[in-house]
């Protein structure tokens, strides 16, 4: 059974290792463990995890500043994709934003990540800008597509 659970503010750093394990599989060009731990210790960090009765299978990390949320990292293990888990975590973030007085949610996504862009667009996010050559990949640099939606 799938459960979407918020990261407890006083224990977010306890989730660094399992989140990092997912990042290494699902986002291999992403942050290192020290960067992740630092984010989890910030008072502006919010997020949720997706888990089954056996293991964590996804996470969403965001930053709340004033009345805005920014999605910083978001992944589901490859074998668990296309099952609505990402949509459930986005729904959790929208409810959190509504409950805490947020007006907008922002994110950036790699221009070559068509599946993520489709998920965000189906969740009401719209493109508003582009950052050329933002992401560094083994094959070169990739543009970031900037998206936002109202809460």
Structural write-up:
This protein has 151 residues and is an alpha+beta fold. It is built from four helices and seven strands. The longest helix is centred in the middle third of the chain and has 15 residues. It starts with a strand and ends with a strand.
Short description:
The chain has 151 residues and is an alpha+beta fold.
How much is the radius of gyration in Å? 15 Å
Largest sheet: 7 strands, mixed
Name the overall outline.
globular
Overall mean pLDDT score?
94
Q: What structural class should be given to the helix and strand makeup?
A: alpha+beta
The CATH class: Alpha Beta
**Low-confidence regions:** none
**What fold name goes in the CATH topology slot?**
Aminopeptidase
Label this structure with key terms:
alpha+beta, single chain, seven-stranded mixed β-sheet, 4 helices, 40% strand, Aminopeptidase, globular, 151 residues
Fold topology:
Elements: E1 3-6, H1 16-26, H2 33-41, E2 45-51, E3 56-65, E4 68-76, H3 85-99, E5 104-110, H4 114-122, E6 126-137, E7 140-150
Parallel strand pairs: 4-5
Antiparallel strand pairs: 1-2, 2-3, 3-4, 5-7, 6-7
